[in-house]
Task: structure prediction
Amino acid sequence: MSEKDRPQNVALDVLSKISGIAEGEIRPQMDLTADLGIDSPKALQLLVDLEDRLSIEISDDDAAKMQTVGDVLGYVEAAG
Amino acid sequence: MSDLRPDPRPFPKTLPEALHRAAIAFPDKGLAIFDGRGRSHERRSWAEVRGMACTGAERLAALGVERGDRVVVCLPSSWEWMESWLGALLLGAWPVALAPAGALGSSEAHTRRVAEVVERLDARLLVTGASVLDEAARLAESTEPGSSGEGAPGEGSGREALRELAARGQTPERLAEITLRTVKFARPEPEEVAFLQLTSGSTGVPRAVQITHAAAMHNNRVSDEAIGAPHGAPAHTWADAMVAWLPLNHDMGLVGCLFMSLTHGLDLWLMNPTTFLARPGLWLEQIARRGVTFAPAPNFGYQLLAERLGGAMGRRGLPEGLDLSGFRAALVGAEMVRPETVEAFVGLTEPHGFDPRAIRPCYGLAEGTLAVTFDCRGEGLRTRPRPAGTVSAEDLGGREVACVGAPVADTEVRILAPDGRELPEGEIGEVRARGPGIFTGYYNDSKATAEALVDGWLATGDLGFLHGGELYLTGRLKDILILRGHNLMPHELEWLAEGVTGGGGVERAGAFSVDGGPEGERPVLVVETGVRAPDALRELAHDIRREVGRTLSLILADVTFVRRGKIPKTTSGKVQRRELKRRYLAGDLERLDTVPET
Result:
């Protein structure tokens, strides 16, 4: 697996594309809505893009626990 | 196009009759429900759906549910929803659909809201997922004893309500284990209440709109006629299917999609709103595959499609060869219709055979069962300039105002000035409506009913004008925000903000929406605070945004801080939101700091 394909890097790329914030400026403690501006339509896009790019399935219960960038990164690391 | 189909049996007078008729008269038609991400679907005939409803009725009866009991169904669009909601209907109980929790964010706020509804309606039974029941039990333990559903703004419902929720709640899994009990189905009169639709109340508590069988069936019949008008025959005679993603707790999903298709014998291809948000293109792909179709969506749905699949944000575009020529009526309603959105949507779909004349704006509200006006011309979107000299804080939308059509059959619309005078065409005032689809009252709330029904006319709280007998909506008088087609009470935002500042009754907050162009309405919070340091204010704004994001999955357009006491209030201390918005827009608020959107 190349560095670029690591789950956490894929997740950062997806987060950056959806939020319009450069990858380098995204920090784990950032809040998905308050800092990245991810509202419910974008949240669904985030889940689907993560699922498609990483070939995983994210349950609704797991999705409900994701509130920060760190939550997302931790999840994909564990799932990938 | 299908052959014109005559109605096989007399038009049903009640919803159970409609369900029984669908099972017998339309054996090849039915309901398909998509999985969460829209990758597959399961289809059942209407006869099988009726079978589920009968099973549901037998299970609910075994739990003691009786005629007139409120049964709250808080589930996504699913077979379990059908079993419980339609089962309650067959028993003559009053089913109430409540939105399930959102995709991301706090289950706590949602659980408290469910508890509040169960308490307000004194529901006999709640059918919901295990996570809601577990959360309620957990919250009941951690909530102060003695706190009730009253007071405690921002807290939602108290310990007792949460305990009641846990006690009255059943999961579909538990219901499935119940031994069936033979029951006698109710044979309701058309004038009896059939179900309740939840809507926002101005005092912060949800209200339940009582809809009779007669109102529901009338709305189904006249909507079918109105949709069919440009084609010279009611929609059911030429349409094969509806493709829908609207939630069943919304009048447009429940009445406009589920009832419409089962009453008129159409196939319904149903996905959850979250599925549409995840894959908006699926809606159009299914429309293209299902023959001659019509489908409703709020303006926001068309906007999302145009943004995600077309224009600069377009990442995927529409698939090659997608044929939308069978999409005969694209209904747009549930919030302000934006000409720029319609234009963008047509730009995306016209190359795929979509006829721009199929754009059909409409207007309705839960208190009107659903439809009040429908564009029946079939000429596509028509607009008129906003009447001059009538700019006010209540305005929404741009200079060009969309026509939302003429009143549906047997229904009247008039425009009233604030002093109660009826206004001539071309002048803006409050929209009032009267007809068989208008509700009979709110459940257990005679005061609110008296305010909404004035001399038999529904005071809609919406502003508009008439031209050539057709309605044009220009704004809103009532204090609600309509975001992505969903009504939000300003209190929900205000309590969250007050919870963050900890201001209690001293530091208040006021919420309203501002016009966001094609994005529709956008929420703004003005918050009183004693904090002055810019860094502390920024942190406070961040915390409020985070709380609003987690609880409601919303992005605030602006958070503005003012000194204590600077939000205009009535002598009894109620926030005057329209005056607040007027000052905000006019730049008359003394802002401590303006925190721009991050």
